[in-house]
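Dear Dr. V.,

Thank you for agreeing to look over these. As mentioned in my earlier message, I'm a first-year student in the group and I'm still getting used to reading structure tokens, so any feedback on how I've presented them would be very welcome. I ran two proteins. I've put each sequence directly above its structure. The first is here:
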Amino acid sequence: MNYTKVSFTFKDIEEYQKDLLMADLADIGFDSFEDTSSGFDAFIADDLFKEEQLAEVISENEIQTTYQIEQVVSQNWNEEWEKNFSPLIITDECYVRATFHEAQPHYKYEIVVDPKMAFGTGHHQTTTMMMQYILETDFTDKDVLDMGAGTGILGILAAKRGAKHITAIDYDDVCYQSAIENAALNEVTNLTSLCGSKEVIPQHIYDIILANINRNILLDQMDAYVNVLAKNGLIFFSGFYEETDLDMIKQAAEKLGLAYVDHKNLNNWVAAQFVKAN
């Protein structure tokens, strides 16, 4: 699969404005972002890219930016990851590295990720917070559903934390394949990867659901998640902002019988924990 890269340059922009722009770009199909010295690069599959949609998002965000568009083939994308992907440490317990980094076996949990073009290396704030929640939560013998699985990193960590089985779902074929390959890299044999969206969720009851996507998809799919969540089961949402989105997520969750527990905030990105009360 070939990708289109859009390189944004800003003269003056606040961090929250950049995050909001990225979120809106994600809504129209951009699935990966890389910070640069002058702004950031955004990547989207060629068949999803429409420049008129890009121009509309920029206009709606009312920011001053210039951008350049170029095509990136898969091989070059992987070379870019190798140049820019650095290991990551989560709460001094979990070490996330790529296949081209040396192992660090003294960490309690080590995850090897071959990111390719899939989202979810742990570097984004939402993935980091979701991993923190996984490290804080008892996953022993739990059935887990991971929606918007990306590289499969959250499901892999859940497996290492003792989960009985993980169903990892992503609508992107690259993510679907990536989750399978990364599970094998980490010798995780109890993760099933499915390609699709809410329509492919198995009719099974899950003890814990992880959903790191974006606000609009969460609001659209939340009822499907609740339908397969066990009573007193936990659900973790991320991919949205505290100032603009958290109250909306809370209200939708409460209408479906989910009780708010708490949330984490990292650079205005949020991960929130809910429990199914009935």
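The second protein is here, in the same arrangement:
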Amino acid sequence: MRIDLHTHSTASDGTDTPAELVRGAAAAGLDVVALTDHDTVAGWREATAALPPGLTLVTGAEISCRLDGISLHMLGYLFDPDEPELARERDLLRDDRVPRAKAIVAKLRELGVPVTWERVRELAQGAVGRPHIAAAMVETGVIPDVSAAFTSEWIADGGRAHVEKHELDARAAVRLIRNAGGVAVFAHPLASRRGRVVSEEAIGELVAAGLDGVEVDHMDHDTPTRDRLRALARDLGLLTTGSSDYHGTRKTCLLGENTTAPEVYEEIVARAKAGRPVTG
């Protein structure tokens, strides 16, 4: 089985619609794909309705969090989308996206970048985020590609045009996902090219809160980092996943570029108390 447990659609900051994403997953030879848009479940229905025969969909979301002053992402799988506490937090996270994005655009304009809020909004078919701002910056010619925006020069955490956002405490995020019947996996935990990362001791705190696993095989983890994470996961009794973090044309990674072992996927499904994968 080929299993990719981290992808994004136009419901957040991907460029494929949920229907296009599941069709693309089947064309890429995947057996299982998880839809994990940022802080939203808006794409679940469309993805489920469009499932090609034989492809299995795992519903999920990537929740924006913070721990020890460091931004991070928590993948939640197969949780109840109507559980009120987690639903309320997702609403807060999404509601903060528009004023934050407008504030970033305002800072960029002060720095001489001729990006407009109207164009950013056009690019964001779903929930607006920094990748949409980066895409608008590319169009102005001030940077060569989207990744160039995520530096201290521009909109990376701590960058000249950075604006803080509402983020949930990561330990609380784990508890909310688990209380909603889901499974919690720390996304790309040591992706240092994105900025500061948490310590191994902090990951231990997340385990105490109920963390199920860590995403190990990811485009932003080199081989030594993957080896370190696997050793840590063994010590802490965590599941280890692999996935593409696919965003369509917004990133260079491909569906199925990294995958999860079938036995790990089966354990995630077994631990879920609310949702079940759906097969087309």
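From my reading of the second output: Residues 27 and 52 are 9 Å apart (CA to CA). The radius of gyration is 18 Å. Does that match how you would interpret it?

Kind regards,
E.
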